Amino acid sequence: MPVRVLVVDDSALMRQIISRMLREDSELQVVGTAYDGQNALEKIERLRPDVITLDVAMPNMDGLECLRRIMDAHPLPVIMVSYLTLAGATHTIKALELGAVDFVTKNTTHDPAENLVMQNELIQKVKVAATIRISELRPVVTPFAPPAAFDDAPSPAKFNQLEVMVIGCSTGGPRALHQLIPNLPAGFPVGLIIAQHMPRDFTRVFAQRLNDLSQLEVREAQTGDLVQPGRVLIAPSGRQTTVRRDGEGRLTVAVSEAPNLLYKPSIDHLLHSVAATCGHRVLGVILTGMGLDGAQGLRELRNLGARTIAEAEESCVVYGMPRAAAELGGVEFVESLPQVLPRVERILREYR
């Protein structure tokens, strides 16, 4: 049976373009279109789609309000479709908190190559969305009470064998990070770097949102930033982040356009640089995500004796990257999302 898709956009042209893109794949069936949120809610009841593509900015009822009502009344996998703008990024990050599975950015040019990129991305993400368990689409609720033992965590000075924690994630990652980062205490004893697959400039908005919710300083990484306790650096989208040492031996990051890899940021590239710089003195974590990125880097870290965690299938929105990491032998511990921080705390205590 083909995946039944409802396309929601206030632009008749975009409804036509998105529908045409989806119809290029025989495994997808566009069962209808809607011109705003209210119209979408009416058609959901009648058409019973498997997946919805949802515009963000619409008159009468916008995408965010429509998404809230979908998740309240009849949760369905939703792919947000937005423009690559600051406002679009802000609304998209909010949509991910509300339960959207993923997002695709609209192509604003007439370049056939870019249209094909959008089409392939849209088809792939709709297909993945159709496989997701509805129970994993609940809106993010933060924060929950952090593990009490973090209150007694050893001081940074005692961490001569653990220098940095690195998290890699993709599809479902923003929602997972919203449940983890705000629950780390201000005194978290190691620096943290996160690589999350996002379009260019979206990570700046995402970092600001996490910073607003967190006790730690969270910001988009820039060349020269120190990796230090109390700070979370988000690898900028559209570029690569590399960890290295400065002239005083301190851990810093460098952000550049190279190397030109499939993913920007590349989790594997970041982890390889961490392995080359820090060796075994690393805690690596792979969370929910589609594809293989991060699996080789985590295996390299584990082979060096670093500590590694992968999210369990039961809590993943997409069990792709964690599965790949486990199959390559790079995973020391497999934990459901609510158990990731307790496992981190237990690992930290080993370095007292």
Automatic annotation (TrEMBL):
Catalytic residues (positions): S170, H197, D293
EC number: 3.1.1.61, 3.5.1.44
Phosphoprotein found in the keyword field: yes
UniProt modified residues of type 4-aspartylphosphate: D55
Keyword Cytoplasm found: yes
SMART domains found in the cross-reference section: REC (SM00448)
Assigned keywords, A-Z: Chemotaxis, Cytoplasm, Hydrolase, Phosphoprotein
Reactions catalysed according to its record: [protein]-L-glutamate 5-O-methyl ester + H2O = L-glutamyl-[protein] + methanol + H(+); L-glutaminyl-[protein] + H2O = L-glutamyl-[protein] + NH4(+)
InterPro entries named among the record's database cross-references: CheB-like, CheB_C, CheY-like_superfamily, Sig_transdc_resp-reg_Me-estase, Sig_transdc_resp-reg_receiver
CheB-type methylesterase domain segment(s): 154-340
Response regulatory domain segment(s): 4-121
Domain remarks: Contains a C-terminal catalytic domain, and an N-terminal region which modulates catalytic activity.
Matches recorded under NCBIfam families: PRK00742.1 (NF001965), PRK12555.1 (NF009206)
Name of the protein: Protein-glutamate methylesterase/protein-glutamine glutaminase
Organism this protein belongs to: Hydrogenispora ethanolica
